[in-house]
Amino acid sequence: MRIEVFLIKAGKIKNQDLIKIQNLVGDISDEDLRHVDCYVSDHLGIFIPSVGFCENAITPSHTHPSYLFVVYFTKEQSFINDNIELPDKHYLVSVIEPEIPHEEKPLETFKRYIAIFISKETFEGIYKEYSKEQLSQQLVWEQFVVGHEIMIYIKKFMFEFENKILGYKTILDALAKIIGHCLVRNFLNIDNKTDFVTEKFEFDSIIDFMHQHFGQKITIAELAKKINMSESHFIRVFKKETGVSPMDYLIRIRIEKAKKLLRIGTKNITEVSLFCGFGSTSHFSSSFTKHTGFSPSEYQNVYSVN
Q: CB neighbours (10 Å) of residue 104?
C-alpha cells in the first residue's frame, strides 16, 4: 500500500492537473516542470523552482493566458532592478498581465521564488470589487509589496493540494480567492493589518533560506545569526516551532530535493549527493535510507519517471 500511494505522488503530473496547469500557464508539458513543485486548482496555480529552472520560464518570448505574480523571498533574489522600498516582514512582488511576451534569464544557479498564476477572469473579477475602473496601466513587471500573511494562505493551499483531504477542492477555490484579494489589496495599497501573523516570519525566512541554499554548507551559527539569536536559543525555539532540530529539518529538505532529482533521472547518485549538500555518498545513502526506507538506487529504480 505504501509503494502504491507513493507512486501516485512521485510520478508525472496527473492529466487532470496538467490540463489545469495548461489553462493557467499555456503551452507547457510536465517535462517543462520537472524541476518545479506545482500546486494547482481551476483558478490559481502555485509554482516553486525546487532543484532547477522551469524550462517554460526560460523559453524566449513566451506568454501566459493568466496574470502572473512572482513573489521573491528577498529583494536580492528579484530579477528586476528597482529602488522600491521593502519593509521588514514583507515580500517583493512583480506582476505581468496576460499575453505579454517575457522570459526568465537563466543564471549560474537558479533562484527560488513563488510564481502565482491567477486566471484572467478570477483576477479581474476580484479587482472589480475594489475598483469599478479597468486597470489604468499595462502591467509589465510592475512591483509592489505584500505582507507576510499571504504566505499563510499560500502554504495552506499547498497543504490542501498535497494531502487532498475530503473537501479540498472547495478549500482550494476559497484560498485562491483569498490569495487574489491579498494581492489586489496590496497592489492598490489598501490598508491591510498583518501584525497578527508576523511573529513567525523570522523562522519562515530561515526555512526559505534552507530551500534556496540546500546544496551549500549551512551551520547553526549562520542561521542563528540571521535572526539575532544565540545558537542554543535558536535550536530550542526552532524545534518548538517545527518539531525537529534545524539540522534535521535541513536534512529533510535535502532528502526531498534528492527524491525529485532521482525521479527525474538526469543525475547519477553521486551527483545528486553532491548537489544536495551531502559530504559523501555514504552519508547521503544512509540518510536517504533512514528517511525513505529505500536506498537511493532502489528508490530510483522504482520511482523514476523516465
A: 20
What does each C-alpha distance from 262 to 292, 301, 305 come to in angstroms?
Answer: 13, 9, 9
The three-state secondary structure class of 150 is helix
Q: Which distant-in-sequence residues (6+ apart) come within 8 Å of 182 by Cβ?
A: 146, 147, 149, 150, 153, 192
Question: Within 13 A of 276's CA, how many CA atoms are on the CB side?
Answer: 31
pLDDT digit string, tens, across residues 184-243: 999 988 865 554 444 466 778 888 889 989 999 999 999 999 888 899 989 988 888 888
Nearest to 51 by CA among 194, 297, 289, 256: 256
Distant-in-sequence, close-in-space partners of 194: CB < 8 Å, separation ≥ 6: 89, 147, 148, 149
- End-to-end CA separation in angstroms for the chain: 23
* Contact criterion met (CB below 8 Å) for 57 and 80: no
Distance CA 121, CA 134 (A): 13
Q: Which residues, 6+ apart, have CB-to-CB distance to 2 below 8 Å?
A: none
Q: C-alpha cell of 88?
A: 521588514
**128 to each of 41, 131, 180, how far by Cα in Å?**
22, 5, 12
Q: What is the pLDDT of residues 283-303, one digit of tens each?
A: 999 999 999 999 999 998 887
Cross-strand partners of 44: 118
- CA dihedral (144, 148, 152, 155) positive or negative: positive
**pTM of the full predicted structure?**
0.80
